[in-house]
Amino acid sequence: MQRYIARRLLLMIPTLLGVTFVVFLMVRAVPGDVIDQILGDFGAGDAATKEALRKEYSLDGNLAAQYVRWLGDVVRFDFGNSIISDRNVLGELKNYLPVTLELSLLAIFFSLLIALPVGIISAIRQDTPIDYFCRSFAISLLAVPGFWVALMLITLAGRYFTWGVPPKSYIAFTDDPIGNLRMLAVPAMILGAGLSGGVMRFTRSTMLEVLRQDYVRTAWSKGLSERVIITRHVMRNALIPVVTVVGLQLPILVGGTVIIESVYSIPGMGRFYVSAVNAQDYPVVQAINVLVALVVIFANLGVDLVYSILDPRIRYS
Amino acid sequence: MANNYWDSYWRERRSRRRFLGSAAAAGVGASALALVGCGDDDGGGTEQLATPTSGAAATATPVDPLAGAKKNSGTLKHVLAGDPPTLDPYGNISFLTKGHAVAHYSRLFMYKSGPGIAYGSVRPTPDAAASAESTPDGLKWTVKLRPNVKFHDIAPVNGRLMTSEDVKVSWERATSATSTNKPTLPVAKVEYPDASTIVFTLTRPSGTFLDDMADTNVFYIMPKEAFSGGFDPAKTAIGSGPWVWKSYEPSVKFVRTRNPAWHVGATSGAPFFDSVEHAIIPEYANRLAQYLAGNLDVSDVNADDLSSVIKQVAGARIVGTSGPTLSFTFFDSDPASPWNKDPRVRQAISMAYDRDVLMELGYNVKKLRDAGIKVETNWHNLFPAGETAWWVNPTGPEMGAAGKFFKYNPTDAKALLSAAGYPNGFDTTYQYTANRYGKLFNDIAEANQSFQAAIGVRSTTDVQDYSSKYITQTFLGDFKGIAFGYQTPFPEAGSYLTRFFTDVPTNHSRIKDPEMTKLATDAASELNAEKRKQIMVDAQKKNAEKMYYIPNVAGAGTGWAAGAAKLGNYQEFVTKAYGAPAETHPFWYRA
């Protein structure tokens, strides 16, 4: 197992190197640049100022030299300063990432809270009205956009139940855990509801697959109760693939919560990322992409390792 | 999810201004401000006004709108739609950066707001300056600093007095190679003969010197410690403005406390709020919900929500602002293009637009009027409709014969196209950006295209990304076809002419008309108020005759904002550009 983990960690190096190269080139392939953003229409035609600013931010050399210099810094885990705000990128990420991670984990929690029971019930009551209802429920959760639900909830709260309006400014968990949950619970539920549709459908499919296995039929023939068969024999095997799906939701959420974060004024990675992309703030965009790549790689590794814990038949070497 | 530049800009502005109708400030021109002295502090102070040529002085009637102000008003619960890209006022052109800077840093001059002062007649008043005097030829301006301007009592500045040395280092930063907002003033040199005197020598007379100095885009006075490593202006702010830095959590909020030593509030005690908290809330629905729940003292309000807000919030202080943001159609500069071959093509396109329909589309006019709410529906001219001091009503008699080109008349428009050699119309490209200015702009951009098509100007649409294409190419005249966009609102209206008709990159259509260029340069240097007004009127009429730029209506309707019932004088203050944190917020108080 240790050799397997070591090999996977070594394989991360070329993957990350590829990510840095692609990200570095892609942000610069977009027409215009960060200096155009800084100057806007006021300085749009001011070539001298543009040149001076490019020099100041070391954007005037050739791309290869810029890439090597940046990569050298990244290896030391130094992502530099934002060209736009002049604040340290790593410092900014330390502020934004935990917020999004908390939101994402809460969303996954709520997603599982909905998806697992509904998926399981739907499978064990296949082709009954309960199953039809659960499947329709799942489809509706998939179909209704989270931002619409969020806007509706906020608008209705403002109009009809102002006590339901979320706190106007983000409350850190360390400052006030209850206030923090008040801030994040509803957006996490909305995100979780959106995620739960897919997980529920997947849970149902894998449950049905396992329910048709010979060993389950054997269990039935032995006269075991439904509760025992489902919880001890079916769920443990059926939920292994579900772990993969759930595990891969985390990196998606890290970069994919921008709309909910904007609606609820949550200072997370999504807002940070989108504003950086809009401003073509190279150091920030590059840093976030490298970070998300790291999250994806580690999430994949984590899922694979959890597999071996859940399924004793799986052994890595 | 309309989170973008102009939506944000409007939110900031709307939340701070009062609707005061369309009263023009006739006779208040640039030259009337050649000598400005502060006989008193605050908005109610006495000002001495004189022209540089005659030296005659007039005294304004002293008014004290702040006599009933309630000090210790607690915390003003304000809102921002986004973070400033940087806190350094010379590090980014964003209005959010300027809106932050103006809370902390003084300028030499600021705009005076208060009861009875409409948007179009807001004029400069001393900020850190005590007075400004020009030579009769308008080529040299001597500015004296107030003796009581203190920087905030924060290390390393520690509440020391401002001197001309601070002005000097700030001017050097403003004009440095990497400054993002270099002053466009015709300044030949600046001298600092003593600790309280600054002398600006100009290359030509400027009728807008004081406006330029009051413009929040131009010149902030920072303590010299900001440039010598004493503190980093990109991370914090230590100035001499009305608000003192307390904290900033990116994407969450700013907290600022009142500056008890603010020179402008020396008499009245402004700012009246003990502190101001700017929650950063990008989403309109959330801002409105927070306002309705009483968590914010102010919010922007969409026209669709106005009636319900009035019903739901007892005593809500609703304000409306007639648009100061110019929207306009512009054209490529290719001599072979139909509009450059014959000006009747441009006239026809202007006449193809039904501006009443566009206004209804953008501003929900009928519904609001049916609800008994007064809505301004003025159309833009070459100057935006909100610039009442200079704007000529396109539908009024002052426009003369050129007024007909603003009127919706598709029949005559087709006839003009035919006379220009295009009886069957022509094909072209129509471009605008849909990811910056918000839904209202986008709706009207689409409608414009339909109106053009109705007279035979058939176009394929190029919806452009703002950053990578529109602002860096199209806006600078590097495009083919017809374009539609917004112009940055300038506090000083002459800037529109300079940008549109002189040899600068923002002459979007590359107009080279000696007559228009002369009007633009004359407007910049004319010192006589009446003559300057006439130049501005002439420029609007001449543009309309040839329709180099076709003014539209997006931004010309009424933008709405709501203040809490307890904000006693919320509706009394209106200002220009991004000056609200210094020009209106300090004077608000709780009733």
Contiguous runs where pLDDT drops below 50 for at least 5 residues of chain B: 1-63
Percentage of β-strand residues of chain A: under 5%
Mean pLDDT of chain B: 86
How far is the first residue's CA from the last residue's CA of chain A? 6 Å
The rough form of chain B would be described as globular
Strand content of chain B: 15-25%
| Helical run tally of chain B | 17
Q: What's the number of extended β-strand segments of chain B? A: 21
Shape summary of chain A: globular
- Count of separate DSSP helical elements of chain A: 13
- The largest beta-sheet of chain B arranges its strands as 3-2-1-7-8-10-9
Rg of chain B, please?
A: 24 Å
Task: Flag low-confidence runs of chain A.
Answer: none
Secondary structure: helix percent of chain B: 25-40%
Largest sheet of chain A: none
Largest sheet of chain B: 7 strands, antiparallel
End-to-end distance of chain B: 35 Å
Estimated radius of gyration of chain A: 24 Å
Oligomeric state of this protein: heterodimer
Mean pLDDT rating of chain A: 89
Structure explained in plain terms:
The complex is a heterodimer of chains A (317) and B (591). With 317 residues, chain A is mainly alpha-helical. Chain A is 76% helix and 0% strand. In chain A, helix 1 packs antiparallel against helix 13. Chain A starts with a helix and ends in a 7-residue tail after the last helix. The mean pLDDT of chain A is 89. With 591 residues, chain B is α+β, with helices and mostly antiparallel strands. In chain B, a hairpin with a 2-residue loop joins strand 9 and strand 10. In chain B, helix 14 runs antiparallel to helix 15. The N terminus of chain B is likely disordered. Chains A and B meet through helix 2, helix 3, helix 5, helix 7 and helix 11 of A and helix 5 and helix 13 of B.
